[in-house]
């Protein structure tokens, strides 16, 4: 990985980490459904001109059915789920659950695509999911006296898990049905598809109180930079350094999300969050093969 690639990787992690902060602020102003719809609409406005510029519209049309499903599973569902979750829990905690996406991707690849799991990857999955379950129990009060606050937190946490699972499915779906399709056609087409899917729900759940100018500026930042520009950087990294290196951005996102939330929103960072994050990332590193211990290799 060259110096420029490393800087882009860090910049991408900073953008995607900041998205949790902007989603938390935006969800309170727009509501979860409208925020998700406006986010993908803004991203589509950035990416579709690039699809035209790169002359990838024919590829997008030829593969519109899988791109439509990808737009639902890789954008509409996770963006909506995280926006809903951030009405209750912090952006830092949401980003930690998001870091479990590769765990779901590895599990689905094993069940669906017959991807081989060696001893190290199997242990990594077990450790990673143990960290996820432990953090769920710690933050949602499962097993204790569940009050209304605990139930809302549990629902928020489960929404994060749904989002992470949707990302995991989407990675495998892309590999199975969109391999070889130009990347910008997939990125732009999926955002356009998500916009069409969320348009009617957003109209039905449009906020009663008109958001202020500051809220619209934050939404534009979320759409243009944290989504549209982030996709461009991500796919360029895949082309330059390969998907295995590009996916390591997963390990940096929680650090930025927690940092942005603490700096600008005053979010608290608990010891349970730090421990849970460490366990999840450790298991993820084993599960996706980023770290290969010599003992397991032998």
Largest sheet at a glance?
A: none
The topology string of helices and strands comes to: HHHHHHHHHHHHHH
> Low-confidence parts lasting 5 or more residues at pLDDT below 50?
none
Give the amount of beta strand, in percent. Answer: under 5%
Oligomer: single chain
What is the CA-atom radius of gyration, in angstroms? Answer: 19 Å
Structure summary, number of beta strands: 0
Sum up the overall morphology in one term: globular
First and last CA, distance? 27 Å
Query: Which whole number gives the mean pLDDT?
Result: 91
Number of helices: 14
The chain-level structural class is: mainly alpha
Helix content: over 70%
Molecular structure report:
With 298 residues, the protein is mainly alpha-helical. The chain is 80% helix and 0% strand. The protein has helices spanning 3-30, 32-53, 57-62, 64-85, 91-98, 101-112, 119-140, 148-177, 183-204, 213-241, 243-246, 253-264, 271-287, 294-297. The two termini are 27 Å apart.
């Amino acid at each position: 990985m060259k110096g420029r690639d490393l800087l882009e990787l860090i910049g991408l992690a900073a953008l995607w980490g900041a998205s949790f902060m902007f989603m938390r602020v935006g969800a309170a102003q727009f509501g979860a459904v409208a925020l998700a719809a406006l986010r993908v609409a803004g991203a589509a406005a950035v990416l579709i001109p690039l699809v035209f510029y790169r002359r990838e519209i024919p590829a997008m049309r030829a593969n519109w059915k899988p791109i439509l499903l990808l737009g639902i599973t890789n954008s509409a569902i996770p963006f909506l789920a995280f926006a809903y979750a951030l009405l209750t829990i912090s952006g830092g905690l949401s980003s930690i659950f998001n870091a479990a996406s590769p765990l779901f991707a590895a599990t689905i690849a094993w069940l669906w695509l017959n991807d081989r799991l060696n001893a190290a990857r199997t242990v990594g999955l077990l450790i990673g999911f143990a960290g996820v379950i432990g953090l769920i129990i710690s933050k949602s009060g499962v097993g204790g006296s569940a009050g209304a606050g605990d139930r809302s937190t549990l629902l928020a946490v489960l929404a994060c898990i749904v989002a992470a699972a949707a990302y995991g499915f989407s990675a495998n779906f892309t590999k199975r049905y969109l391999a070889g399709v130009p990347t910008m056609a997939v990125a732009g087409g999926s955002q356009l598809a998500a916009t069409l899917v969320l348009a009617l729900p957003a109209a039905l759940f449009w906020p009663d109180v008109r958001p202020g100018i500051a809220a619209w500026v934050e939404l534009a930042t979320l759409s243009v930079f944290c989504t549209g520009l982030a996709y461009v950087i991500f796919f360029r990294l895949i082309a330059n350094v390969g998907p295995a290196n590009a996916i390591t951005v997963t390990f940096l996102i929680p650090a930025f999300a927690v940092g942005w939330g603490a700096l600008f929103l005053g979010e608290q960072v608990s010891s349970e969050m730090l421990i849970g994050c460490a366990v999840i990332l450790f298991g993820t590193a084993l599960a996706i093969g980023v770290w290969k211990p010599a003992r397991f290799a032998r």
